[in-house]
Amino acid sequence: MLKEFYIYRIINIVTFILSKKNFQRIFIFSLLWRSFFLVDWDSSKDERISFGNHFFYCKLSDRIIASIGEISLSIFLSNKFKIKYILIINIFLAEIFAWLALILNATYFCGNYEYKFWGLSFFIIALKNAKEKNVIYTLVYFLITIYYLKYKEICSEKTKINYSVSAIKNNIKKSIKTNNVDKDWKKWKSNKSWMNIIFGLSSILTFF
Known about the structure:
This protein is mainly alpha-helical and 208 residues long. The chain is 68% helix and 0% strand. The longest helix is centred in the middle third of the chain and has 25 residues.
């Protein structure tokens, strides 16, 4: 077992206990769940690996839990910063591209748009805080904006996508596959960058 994964779990357990709002707790619980049932989202590999041979360790399961958590986050942030509709709409659009990445096997191409919608959402929050002269909050959310807009620049590369029904069915079957179990840190290291942000910091940021 990798020590980083223990750290992710501890952070999310503590933040879940400290959280008070329902949608905040749903979001943090989704992170906690995903930090236990790890999924390999590295598209550069010929064959992705699994942390366990069970449905909960597959990409489809992870995407379902992530969507529930992220939509809950959008509602929580909308209520917290009193920004009606636009955050929920933005993050809902981000979820659409996240699902397209799964069913079309186009993580780079669709991920580009997914992250741009997330970046726009946090930019709106930064502007809201700037208007109310909350300097620290403005800085925090502006830095998050930069992260989301820059992190997936590689996704802008053109990707040939197969839209045929047979290809979509095959991609869905692959998203349920979990038999390639491997817990070697060298094989998981390529996931560290997004896991550090999503599992390591996301729940903490909901308190700002």
